[in-house]
Hints:
- Chain A contains ten helices and no strands.
- In chain A, helix 2 (21-34) packs antiparallel against helix 3 (38-51).
- The longest helix of chain A has 22 residues, at 117-138.
- Chain A is globular, with a radius of gyration of 16 Å.
- Chain A has helices at residues 2-6, 21-34, 38-51, 57-72, 79-97, 99-114, 117-138, 143-156, 164-180, 193-205.
- Chain B has 710 residues and is mainly beta.
- Chain B has a 22-stranded antiparallel beta barrel. In chain B, strands 8-13-14-11-12 form a five-stranded mixed sheet. A four-stranded antiparallel sheet of chain B has the order 3-2-5-6, with no helix packed on it.
- The relative contact order of chain B is 0.10.
- Mean pLDDT of chain B is 85; it is low at 9-16, 100-104 and 106-118.
- Classes of the chains: A mainly alpha (206), B mainly beta (710).
- Chain A binds chain B through residues 17, 21, 24-25, 28, 39-40, 43-44, 46-48, 50-51, 75, 77, 116-120, 122-123, 125-126, 129-130, 133, 136, 140, 146, 149, 156, 158-162, 166, 169-170, 173, 177, and chain B through 3-4, 7, 37, 39, 41, 43-46, 48-50, 71, 73, 125-128, 131, 231, 233, 510-512, 556-557, 561, 563, 599, 601, 603, 606, 608, 647-650, 699, 701, 703-704, 706-707, 709-710.
- Chain A: This is Tetratricopeptide repeat protein.
- Chain A: It comes from Myroides albus.
Amino acid sequence: MRKLLILLFGVFSVVSFGQSKYEAGMQKAMQQWQSGQSKEAVAMLDRIAMSDKENWIPVYYKVLISITGGFSNPQADAVEDIVMANRVLIDQWLETGGSEWYVLKGMNETLELITDPMNKGMVQTPIINKAYDKAIELDPTNPRAVYSVASFQINSAKFMKVDMDYYCKMLEKSIELFDKQESDVPFYPSWGKDWALKTQEMCKVK
Amino acid sequence: MRTLLCLLLTLCVGAVQAQQILLSGTVVNDKNKPIENVNVYLEDSFEGALTDAKGYFSFIVTDTVVSGVLKLMHAQYGNLDVEINTKENYNEHFVLSSQDEVMGEILIIANSKNKRERAESIGLNAMDVVSTAGSPGNIMGVLSTMPGAQTNGEDGRLLIRGGRAEESGIFVNGVRVFQPYTSSVGNVPVRSKFNPFLFKGISFSAGGYSAEFGDALSGVLQLDTSDEIDPSRRDYSISTVGGSFAQTHQWGKNSLSYSLNYLNLGAYTAVVKQRYNTKKPFSTASGEMMYKREIKDGGYKLYTAVDFSTIKYEQEIQPSNRVDTLGFKSSNVYMNSVFFKKLTPYMRLDIGTGLGYMDYTGDSNDLSLKKISWDVNQKVKFSYQWNGQFLSFVGVDVQASKLDLTRSEGSRAEAFGTDTNRWALFFENNWKITSDLSLRAGLRTSKYSEISDWTVEPRAMLTYQVTPKHQMSFSYGVFNQAVNLEQSLAVKQEDWMQANHYILNYTYEFRKRLLRAEMFYKDYSKLLLTPLGKPSEYAQLGEGYAKGFDLFWKDNITFKNFSYWVTYTYIDSQRKEMYWNEWIQPSYVVKHNFSVVTKYWIDQWKSQVSMTYNYSSPRHFYDMNTTNKTTYESSPIHNVSMSWAYLFSGQKIVYLSVDNLLGRNPVYAYQFNQRGGQPDVTNASAKRFIYVGFMWTISADKKKNQLENL
């Protein structure tokens, strides 16, 4: 799972000139993130969020960056604090952000789980399932929501018996949705297809 | 393409004309210490940098002039805006003052463990309880592997640092539990009554605890149910000794859970030979109900438990070959209701109510003891967050108890009854003096209807955060306790029993490994003592002490999929108490207690295998009937237990547990006969206890329908 999540996303498709200050800032943040400067990227997103308090997109990426950073090293000391800080932000934006934020919530709770799967598995699993289910309920065409459900189950196969055929089909479905997704909102989340393809390899093994 | 080229050209031309202006500076706090990770930037362009460990930042702006607002942003230190207008390089020194002055909102979720509270108690969760081998599902089982805690084989109750079982207070959501254990007769060890999954947090304090709690000379165990409403689900479980069914139903902002359990040892004891002869097998029928409701800025939780248990058996006692016929019948009801609400962002109100009822009849040969008891506990607490450094709470704690006891032997019957009240007021401040130093200081005062004096109990704890990893703390407290109701039938109590605790704690935490070392000294006074030759009278002239240290090491990370903890407790305790008007080590005290708990997750088998080893040094028993005061020593105890949980699927678990894998047969205790001679020995009822169970959970969300709807 970790290796998967280190993979970078294809969020850099929006390249336009004559950018607004917002777009330039967002783009810089994305570049910094891609080149491994997560801390600087988050600082940039903080600045943008400060100037545009109604917009959930900079905060979304800030949370996403900290979660994916946590996935790459779930045993780090700070991870539990990161999860707590993210929870505060997620609770603030859950209503306005909708489906995409429920995906983040599920991911953040998954991060909490993988810090100690043995002891936290039982408590976290229903919370994660509930968040992803809500994400699908709000937007059944959100490929990230569908992918997240499938991926969470497929990765759980390590710990218990999972109906792989079923969730692999779901994963395929998410890839179809990834190909169909489009949004007019600049920097609207579009990541995930690479991860889905990577997860699909686990289906082929089984 | 052409646009791109044009744009690049324009940019380059611009770059040539503009100059490079270096903006730099340092940021420190009001103690002149550098602040790291301050986000410094120009509001207009988002250009900026983060400060390094020395508080230094620098960035280059390519422009003819820099004018506007330079913003400094930090999570703890807040924000600072500085006007800037420069054509040349700019360097400035900034001071950000700590935001602690800002009022922190009071935490609505009580008992959230922060680092400061580490020293005070050890936190556990339900998984720690069920995945620890030795005593499946019994909270006391895992607690006996904690520093400062002990349970004895023939008793099962929680003993804290050389204290009697009665000296440990058990609380659910801050409200006292009157009958925390299953009923028992003879030497059948008791278990905790509570299902560990009810609780979000289990926090154990081996002394020096907060002024919020009282009437427990040695220590407290706090069990807290989660405040969040539960998602709908259904659980079935079946095992070699019974079965249970549980369901949770969630609607809107409410959730209702209930469970029905039936346990019967009949089939098990028919197959596995026990040391006793079953007349009527041990059976318990019980039900639990939990209702939760979320309200604005608060919540309500109601927990109710009802159980009915019975057993009847014959046991031959060795070496005197006496045959005892023992049995009991017991019904219990317990209710616990909690209401909490944030009245203002800085004030929280907690109202807790506990109600307990017990009807117990125990038979031991011809002697029959019938007890009916009622207990009510009402607690109201206001907490107020004055500012970031100061939190206070004040509260009232009232308890009323009533006990009717009938002792009959053949046709002779004696009836006794008593009812008592106690009131307590408590007040406590948590003061963060500096960022590394904090003080908890409180006062509790109580009145008991049987005792004319009020108690005054100061409690304090000073915590010093040496570095983020090291912490030291010192706590002190005065604790009083009245004798329990059953004893009070025979004793005219004149004063409170009293203990002083002095505890020095050192905690070292790094990368999810925890080392905790504690030294303690407790002195006891005004304990019950029987004057020589008057076995039915008591005077409060007893005294005692307990001193020692404990070590606790927990590591979840060094070995992959393997977590373990190691505990060692040393207690040197002597008392002049009950029949012993001379200093002796009480027979319930174990001097050396050592445990190793391991849990290993095996990927290929989808199983968790746990093993627990427990060593207790021999206890001392004294024959009071002979003049030569012989001391008998119980066996040293080496107990290895193992459990295996296999995850069939996420929802189905098969569970196997074996207690006392080595099949050792220690002497737990001695019982002295009035006739004298060799004392009778108490052993476990069987060498091993084997438990096989199957658990099945059905969540409300129906996975199978999802794919079709997408």
